[in-house]
Specification:
heterodimer; A: mainly alpha; Four Helix Bundle (Hemerythrin (Met), subunit A); 5 helices; elongated; B: alpha/beta; Rossmann fold; Alpha-Beta Plaits; five-stranded parallel sheet; five-stranded antiparallel sheet
Chain lengths: 119, 323
Amino acid sequence: MTKMLAELPGIERIRQRFVEMLDERQTLIATHGLAAWDGTTVDEIKGNLASAQAILHQIAGSAGSLGFEELGRLARKCETQIVEHLAGPRANHADCPIEIISELDGFVAHCRQEIDAHA
Amino acid sequence: MRILAVDDDPIILELLGQFVEIIGAHDLTTAPSALHAVDMLGDPNLEPIDCFMLDIQMPGMDGIELAQHIRNSARHADTPILMLTAMSDKRYIDAAFAAGATDYVTKPFEIAELKARIGLVEGMVKERQQRTKKIFAAKTIADQATHMELFEPVPIYDVDNVIDYTAMENYVAQLSRSALFGSTAFAFTIREVDAFHATMTSFEFYSLVSDVAEILSDTLVDHQVLMSYAGNGTFVCVTESGWRPNMGGLMDAVNFELSQTELFDNNGERVHPRVSAGEAVRLIWKSGNSVMDALAQAHASAEAASEAHTRSLNDFWQNDQQA
């Protein structure tokens, strides 16, 4: 987080809100990730991955501005992986790549560490 | 400035609120979705917005569609639009510029960058207020004294893929941050544009430039091209699609379309504009300022081609008289 950013008068309140929302968001990401992994149709898998990607996109967009640079970087990495998968030929297969689930799993674990650290 | 920020992430809206508070005397209004923003903009009691900040990726209506909606409204057709985006959104950035975006700010925000962009927008708002006054004044036939300068890069409205010149400069600047393998700059200049400018009212001249822009846009419709009026009768174009334009063939196609289109001045006299094309300048291996130089090179070569054409006509008539 840049020095000027750290000096914003309301930044601590926004960071606190971000962490509270992160708790809800990581649960949603895990839920969509599992639903994609268990999904049996192309639409079900793609829909759940797209939902997870939308949440990751939000985290990636704001985490870095609030001092959670590593969280933002991991969110962007997961997001990019899903975007590339959905744009590629495997998107129309009724299976969800384990690499995506593994990356999401790591991301959710990192979210929990951040939440615990700010509890 | 009165700023409307639209983002589906409440954290981003709160952050923007903090930023705007410390960077100056601006008034920030927020909307959590594009549809909310559309509703707000439809309110006749809403005070005019001086600057929009739009997230590109939003569920439902996205920032690109919202930018198009804003550009289609008479009230905000000319209002600067800053897109809020991640660098990974490159595929959306081009579409955002084509939809009418002026520039973009990347997430996560750097306060210095945001401050600089908003500062630029403030300058644009002041400049546009002057320009808008001129255009509206020019539309009033009674006020023939108002004059638009030949070199002014006036914005052209309602023509597909034609963007404001400031937006074009921002677009080219962002191109230099990515792969330029398939990118080419080229330009067209209206021949003897100074003569048109000298004999027409500002409104007639503006209409002529808009008509030529429309024909250029129609001619280039099958290619992924963004175009801008740079002033002095010159339109600069950039394609990223890998297409290598055949400038001679394109010039002929544009001039054929111009010959088939009936354009008139205020006296009902038909006008016959034609264009000259410059060289196509590939942007590969260029970076930073040299990309802007390439745009200037394309621009200059079109103007040189136009001047050469005029000279050759004069030489032809002089030689003919001597013979």
